Amino acid sequence: MKVKIAYIEEAPFYWTREDGSVTGADIELAETVLRAIGVTDIEYQLRLFAELIPGLQAARWDMNVPLFVTAERAERVNFSLPVWSLGDGFIVQRGNPKALTSYEAVAAQSDARLGIIPGQVQYDSAKSAGVSDSQIVMFNNQPEAVAALLTGKIDAFAATATGNRIIARDHKELQAVAHDLGKQDKAPVGAFSFNKNNLVLLQAVNEQLRHYLGSQQDLARVEKYGLV
Questions:
Q1: Backbone dihedral region of 24: left (phi > 0), alpha (psi from -120 to 50 degrees) or beta?
Q2: 201 Cβ contact list (under 8 Å, min separation 6)
Q3: Could you identify which of 25, 90, 94, 141 might form a hypothetical disulfide with 225, taking C-beta atoms 3.0 to 4.6 angstroms apart as the criterion?
Q4: CA-CA distance, 55 to 51, in Å (whole number)?
Q5: What are the structural domains of the chain?
Q6: What is the rounded (10 degree) CA torsion for 72, 73, 77, 83?
Q7: What backbone torsions phi and psi does residue 197 show, to the nearest 5 degrees?
Q8: Strand, coil or helix: 227
Q9: How many Å apart are CA 46 and CA 181, to the nearest integer?
Q10: Which one, of 53, 73, 72, 71, lies nearest residue 63 by Cα?
Q11: For the segment 139-175, what is each residue's pLDDT rounded down to a tens digit?
Q12: What is the pLDDT of residues 20-77, one digit of tens each?
């Protein structure tokens, strides 16, 4: 049985090694679950984030790596059981020279530039907080945004607080700034996604996730990638 998975470059969840192989916390999770249901051939397809939902709807691949669950996305694809819960944050230059600790802080400084990947939930969060389009700089992927931050083309890059910690660990010139959840009871959840017509694969994956999530193997995986 073969399964095609679309992914993007966003360490520590999923990324391409120098030798061309694909790795990451969510990649390892996908492989563990898929092998358990009898999948013998996994093909990874590197895509832009904006391609993930449309490509899945068109059945160009079988599933997407985990992404945030939203009501709008759930109308277009089916989501698995949640596999993580993550809050937003910024990655900024060390010392955070513009004191950017929230989307509201960006909106309050007209010269602040915020990097975002098109289609990700951070765009809606920024706009809801009053960040103007002129302040937002779009990037195809995480590496492009980090490179722009390192060269001063943007002042902050919005992504998950957990992922930002890993970026800051690998780039001493940068630091991660987690956002206060405020009135939210808990952080948004992420899950694998599937074509609406592929219920068999969805149900099989969910069955394995029920057994795996929270197990000792799962906890070791999370720790391995620095997600604790």
A1: left
A2: 3, 62, 63, 194
A3: 25
A4: 6
A5: 2-85+188-224 (3.40.190.10), 88-178 (3.40.190.10)
A6: -130
A7: -90, 0
A8: coil
A9: 31
A10: 53
A11: 999 999 999 999 999 999 999 999 999 999 999 999 9
A12: 999 999 999 999 999 999 999 999 999 999 999 999 999 999 999 999 999 999 999 9
User: Hey, what are 169's tokens?
Assistant: 């660990």
pTM: 0.91
Share of the chain residues as helix, strand and coil, in percent rounded to the nearest 5: 35, 25, 40
Residue 186 confidence (pLDDT) = 73
Q: How far is CA 67 from the centre of its chain?
A: 5
Q: How many CB atoms lie within 10 A of CB 10?
A: 23
| Mean pLDDT computed over 116-137 | 96
Phi-psi region of 96 (alpha: psi -120 to 50; beta: other; left: phi over 0): left
H helices of the chain, where? 25-36, 52-57, 71-74, 103-107, 121-128, 142-150, 161-170, 199-212, 216-224
Angle between helices 142-150 and 161-170 (to 10 degrees): 50
- Torsion angle of the four alpha carbons 214, 217, 223, 227, in this order, in degrees rounded to the nearest 10: -50
Tokens 């391995």: give the residue: 224
Q: Give the span between the Cα atoms of 96 and 101, in whole angstroms.
A: 9
